[in-house]
TrEMBL record:
<comment type="similarity">
    <text>Belongs to the BolA/IbaG family.</text>
</comment>
<dbReference type="Pfam" id="PF01722">
    <property type="entry name" value="BolA"/>
</dbReference>
<dbReference type="InterPro" id="IPR036065">
    <property type="entry name" value="BolA-like_sf"/>
</dbReference>
<protein>
    <submittedName>
        <fullName>BolA protein</fullName>
    </submittedName>
</protein>
<dbReference type="InterPro" id="IPR002634">
    <property type="entry name" value="BolA"/>
</dbReference>
Amino acid sequence: MSSTAEIENRLKSLFNPERLVLMDESARHASHYHEPNAPEVTHLRIRIVSGKFEGLSRVARHRAVNEALAGEIADGLHALAIEAAAPGEKTRW
């Protein structure tokens, strides 16, 4: 099972982000996710700024991150919130 550190390393290697923040929100949702073989990380929020997102739509950015984490999703990453931006774009964070 993947940890946030493993996920962070993968995103860094694939997207070479200018900024990257991973927030593991799994504990906040433990009461409603009772899968006996659940991975360590079940709910994750990703905030990422990368030049790889230049010219991509919001949907294409989300697809790219989802593809990067396809293994984790298949292994039980239950919820993934993605906030992706290109350098210079305004973010809420």
